């Protein structure tokens, strides 16, 4: 982590006074949230919950977003009565085609963003990720402070430096690993604030109904079909783990966001067949939240080594589930000192061994539930929103 990054650690939720819903409006800041993703992923869910918490505290805000999914950012904000400005943008790949798409989309979005800024006169423009920040320019932001909420571990070389010079932002990184790329920021302009979760809502999630036998022991990976999520490692580990474990079942819950995702999904299905796992592994690719499938599992697995944070880990812990994750980046930070988690090398044999410790020991899984939920409280939505609100107030 850069030596000048401020780490804003969460405080114990029980020590905080409750904030009543629909509190008196806060007139000291006006936040325009900007998101450019054309789908509802983890970054959009994190923003949705932050908007939820700040709205309940009376903060004045508006939203510019490209997430038109049912229950997504635009839909949710409209249901809360928030003014929204819909844009259309693609998920630009890091190549020449993606650059062309970005130029076209930015041109189409500029007038909408400019109108929103002119009408709302925000004190803060909150860009949800580097891609959203790419839509901004000094001319657009006027007198507002810019906050880039960086949720990306990987980014095109030099992009953070360009945004730092162009926008002079305050950067909020969701983990120390994410903060590494911001070495060009002046001191005091970078802080680490972990994601926040509505833990009570997560804990109340009913499990999905699976086709498995009643005595099945279920291991799940919940990750969209992106190469660096390492689904194949999971399949290889399950192939090793299934030996002498007739009750073992596995779920791969994810979505194909684009053609590359569809190609990866098709290859994973073929690999599953080659490994003789068709009677063991269930692919769940339909739209909808992953939480019910995490609630239906006994152990959650996360195979990425370059995860910026790891939302599904906290969701599983909040449900009282043990987790097994490959070491590296956000996983190692989020799961540090967690008794209900096992970190392992990104190797099928190591993963199978780590999973076996939980799969073969039902009393250990039951005993881990309390410590899993306790660890999840470090990432409460209340803690996150209070810390973010304090930062916003310091900039207004």
Automatic annotation (TrEMBL):
Region feature (Disordered): 1-22
Residues annotated as domain Glycosyltransferase subfamily 4-like N-terminal: 41-200
Boundaries of every Glycosyl transferase family domain copy: 211-373
Record-linked SUPFAM superfamilies: UDP-Glycosyltransferase/glycogen phosphorylase
Keywords carried by this UniProt record: Glycosyltransferase, Transferase
InterPro entries: Glyco_trans_1 (IPR001296), Glyco_trans_4-like_N (IPR028098)
Segments passing through the bilayer: none
GO MF annotation terms: glycosyltransferase activity
Domain of life: Bacteria
Family membership noted in the UniProt record: Belongs to the glycosyltransferase group 1 family. Glycosyltransferase 4 subfamily.
Protein name: Glycosyltransferase involved in cell wall biosynthesis
Organism for this UniProt entry: Oligosphaera ethanolica
Organism phylogeny: Bacteria, Pseudomonadati, Lentisphaerota, Oligosphaeria, Oligosphaerales
């Amino acid at each position: 982590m850069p030596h000048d990054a401020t780490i804003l650690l969460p405080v114990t939720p029980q020590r905080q006074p409750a904030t009543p819903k629909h509190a008196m409006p806060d007139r000291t800041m006006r936040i325009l949230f900007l998101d450019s993703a054309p789908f509802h992923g983890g970054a959009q869910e994190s923003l949705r919950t932050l908007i939820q918490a700040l709205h309940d505290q009376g903060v004045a805000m508006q939203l510019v977003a490209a997430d038109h999914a049912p229950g997504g950012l635009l839909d949710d904000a409209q249901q809360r009565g928030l003014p929204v400005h819909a844009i259309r943008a693609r998920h630009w790949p890091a190549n020449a085609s993606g650059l062309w798409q970005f130029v076209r989309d930015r041109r189409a979005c500029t007038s909408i963003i400019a109108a929103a800024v002119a009408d709302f006169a925000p004190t803060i423009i909150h860009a949800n990720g580097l891609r959203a920040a790419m839509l901004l320019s000094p001319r657009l932001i006027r007198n507002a402070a810019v906050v880039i909420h960086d949720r990306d571990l990987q980014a095109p070389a030099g992009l953070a430096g360009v945004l730092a010079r162009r926008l002079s932002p305050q950067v909020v990184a969701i983990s120390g690993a994410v903060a590494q790329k911001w070495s060009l920021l002046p001191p005091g302009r970078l802080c680490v604030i972990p994601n926040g979760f509505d833990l009570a809502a997560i804990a109340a999630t009913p499990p999905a109904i699976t086709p498995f036998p009643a005595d099945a022991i279920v291991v799940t990976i919940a990750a969209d079909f992106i190469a660096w999520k390492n689904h194949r490692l999971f399949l290889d580990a399950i192939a090793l783990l299934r030996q002498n474990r007739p009750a073992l079942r596995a779920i791969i819950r994810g979505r194909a966001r684009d053609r590359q995702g569809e190609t990866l999904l098709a290859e994973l299905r073929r690999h599953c067949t080659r490994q003789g796992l068709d009677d063991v592994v269930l692919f769940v690719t339909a739209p909808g939240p992953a939480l019910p499938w995490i609630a239906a599992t006994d152990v959650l697995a996360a195979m990425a080594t370059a995860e910026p944070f790891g939302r599904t880990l906290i969701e599983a812990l909040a449900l009282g589930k043990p987790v097994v994750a490959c070491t590296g980046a956000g996983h190692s930070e989020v799961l540090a000192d967690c008794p209900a988690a096992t970190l392992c090398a990104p190797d099928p044999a190591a993963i199978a061994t780590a999973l076996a410790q939980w799969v073969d020991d039902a009393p250990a899984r039951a005993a881990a539930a309390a410590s899993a939920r306790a660890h999840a409280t470090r990432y409460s939505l209340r803690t996150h929103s209070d810390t973010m609100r304090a930062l916003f107030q310091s900039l207004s």
